[in-house]
Amino acid sequence: MKFRVERDVLAEAVTWTARTLPTRPPAPVLAGVRIEASADGTVGLSSFDYEVSARSEIPAEVSEPGLILVSGRLLAEISRSLPAKPVDFSVEGSKVTVVCGASRFTLLTMPVEDYPALPTMPDVTGTVHGDELTHAVAQVTVAASRDDTLPLLTGVRVEIEGERITMLATDRYRLALREMTWKPNSPDISTVALVRARTLSDVAKSLGGSGDVNVALSSGTGVDIIGFEAGGRHTTSLLIDGDYPHVRRLFPDETPIHAVVPTQPLIDAAKRVSLVAERNTPIRMTFSDGQVVLDAGQGDDAQASEALEAVLVGEDISVAFNPAFLLDGLGALGTDFVRMSFTHPNKPVEFTGQGSLDGEDDRSYRYLLVPIRFAS
To answer: What are the Cα distances from residue 274, in Å, to 68, 127, 163, 238?
Structure first.
């Protein structure tokens, strides 16, 4: 195998393909990146860990087609460090030589015949705009669990009904729901997929800037797979198997009390007040006519408090939140104002965004947070 490729093109493709390589692979070959040079002038780079696959294609001057497997992380580090000149790859026996300007590296190849067959990309199901996908996924995945002992909750439930996609995630302490539109190939499509939050987040960040993203779903074939493709790159992931809890019913039907607060000032105040909050201790928020008071710390410990202007509709109310969970929800809104809707001081509080102080709230994104009980 022999080919020449531009350094920046190579570095970007190798880094993207190698990003999901396992730290402790179950088999040594799974730490490799599969490189296939074709006579049509393309080089395909692939990685696979039996759950997530990634493949990118780049243009190259291919003089001898071939197929090799090399250490993915090492090749990514080398390609990023090379000078800004064309890179030449050549293979002799069990070694591959990488030459770029005055730099020369020799790498051992891995047994490509031991590498597992890459999963087939399913047929495209529809298309979503990349920027909207990136924003929506970021809003939802903040609520997904990081606890791998509860694999169902590390996923995002993706519900597709015609032109509408609804994504839900929960870690039992908060729940995020985001609705968005897309362009399905079939207008009457109705399906549900449970996608790993880490995979979905990685895809949204890495493919979201490429314009439209093709989404492909394969189900009912014994192996359920979701695939994403944009800009000459595609990735697939096995879906999580199991029944996601019925979380939609947790959103309250009615909220007799709500408050509207400027979002960024509230974020800034919460960050300041939380400086004195010991681990696992809450920020208390007391709402009364015209203001909200945030405070943390008690007794002989350090204490902090800050008051902000707020509009309150309904009775005065006090609630307490985990500071990190509160900031996650506020940061995900992306609106000038936040509406916090209450049913009871100890019941989950719904966060929605508003564009103005007296406007309607945008319910395409809803963040539900369980308060912490505190002694009054």
So the answer is: 53, 41, 41, 39
- Dist CA 333 CA 26 (whole Å): 39
Same domain, 72 and 49: yes
**Is the model's pLDDT at 139 over the cut of 90?**
yes
Tally of domains within the chain = 3
Classify residue 166: in a domain, yes or no.
yes
pLDDT digits (tens, 9 = 90+) for 7-43: 999 999 999 999 989 888 889 999 999 999 999 999 9
75 Cβ partners below 8 Å, 6+ apart? 14, 18, 33, 98, 107
Torsion of CA 323, 149, 207, 120, to 10 degrees: -170
280: left (phi over 0), alpha (psi -120 to 50) or beta: left
Q: Is residue 300 part of a domain?
A: yes
Task: Please give the structure tokens belonging to residue 180.
Answer: 């968005």
Query: How far, CA to CA in Å, does 181 sit from each of 4, 132, 160, 161, 191?
Result: 42, 9, 10, 10, 15
Both tokens of 282, joined, read 């809450």
pLDDT of residue 223: 54
φ and ψ at residue 57, rounded to 5 degrees: -120, 135
